[in-house]
Amino acid sequence: MRRSTATRPSRRTVSMVDVAAHAQVSQKTVSRVVNMEPHVREEVRLRVQNAIKELGFRPNAAARSLVTRRTRRIGIVALGTTFYGPLSSLSALESVARADGYSLSIHRTDLTDRSEMQSAVDSLLDEGVEGIVLSEPMHFEDEPLAVHPDTGVLTLGARGLTDREDEILAGSDEASGARLATEHLLTLGHATVHHISGPEIWVATQLRRDGWKETLAEHGAEIPETVSGNWSPQSGFEAMNRLLHSGRRPSAVFVANDQMAIGAISAIEAEGLDVPGDISVIGFDDIDVSEFLSTPLTTLRQEFTLAAHYGMNQLIQAIDGSTPKATPRLVPLSFVKRATTAPPRNITTATDER
User: Fold this and answer.
1) Can you point out the beta strands (E) in 143-228?
2) Which of 88, 61, 81, 95 minimizes the C-alpha distance to 312?
């Protein structure tokens, strides 16, 4: 007679005792295998691992952390934003961490001041994270962030945010990318290159501006005053308008990211001017839409995923104690020539020559 499913007992959760009986070892041996402790013969380890797989045993992560004193958790301090670069980096960090058996605690911040970042770091340390990733690309020269010396730390960028000697750095070589952009426009024959920068507190803003400025100086070209935006297309539109009505029309503009470059192109076309016929524009990042604009954008491609993968792998190895201090890794950018840059026309002065 068949038993009713309503009275059928539920399947019992497989325990460590069950695994020990199945593998014909002690419970202590199973515990050693689960917690990856040494001093277990390889033949015994394989037998226990096979029993775990056959029975479908799932170790309790919380209980295991009490034994190993390991949380296998990494904290990330990230700017609460939809910007292309930070989102790409976050996705890459997560994929590496999860592949290595680490979970993530993500603390998003809305402001760009040091106190909020330090508060986020402290909160993550209180959770017992074994590593901290600082993906907010800010720079605080006067007072670096404090991270406990027993906790690994990775900063995604070219400049450290802590005073730790073992801080891992991984990012893009943004200054060299800005050099490539400026060199390209000067080589086309433009007398100088104007620059629309990002917010001053961002390290990326400083590095891209430095690369642009140094390249102009090396070529003996005039170094114009910069105008700044906040990375958005709207701010690029407004910054370009300021350049167009400053009394002297630029023939070439290097913009610190693609979204502002798209806004700048819109401002140029709103004035009845042509890109690149009247003004050449080059961006930075190579976001997905850049290739599919009505005039595809010349830009610099950042390898966000490559840098984040490298940095997270180094952080995990440092946490596990398997590698010495990592050397900083700055990934080169790729120049992407499209249709928004060209040699200048013989019109270089103000609006009366349009």
Assistant:
1) 152-156, 168-172, 194-197, 227-228
2) 95
Common-topology check for domains 73-173+303-334 and 174-301+336-353: yes
Is 3.40.50.2300 the CATH number for 73-173+303-334?
yes
Across the range 304-313, mean pLDDT stands at: 92
pLDDT of residue 272: 97
* Residue 324 in tokens: 């010495």
Say which CATH class 174-301+336-353 falls into: alpha beta
Cβ neighbourhood burial of 167 (10 Å; 0-12, 13-18, 19+): buried
- For Cα atoms 190, 195, 201, give the angle at the middle one, nearest 5 degrees: 160
3-state secondary structure of 301: strand
Q: Rounded CA gap, 214 and 165, in Å? A: 29
The domain ranges of the chain are: 73-173+303-334, 174-301+336-353
pLDDT given for residue 2 in this prediction = 39
Q: How far apart are CA 344 and CA 281, in angstroms?
A: 11
Which residue bears the tokens 């004193």?
Answer: 69
Query: For the segment 72-94, what is each residue's pLDDT rounded down to a tens digit?
Result: 899 999 876 667 777 888 888 98
Helix, coil or strand: residue 220:
coil
Q: Of all residues in the chain, what percent carry a pLDDT higher than 70?
A: 86
CA 185 to chain centre: 28
Counting every residue, how long is the chain? 354
pLDDT band of residue 174 (cuts 50, 70, 90) is very high
* CA–CA distances in Å: residue 351 to residues 27, 48, 222, 341, 347: 84, 80, 20, 21, 10
- Mean pLDDT (whole number) for 99-122: 85
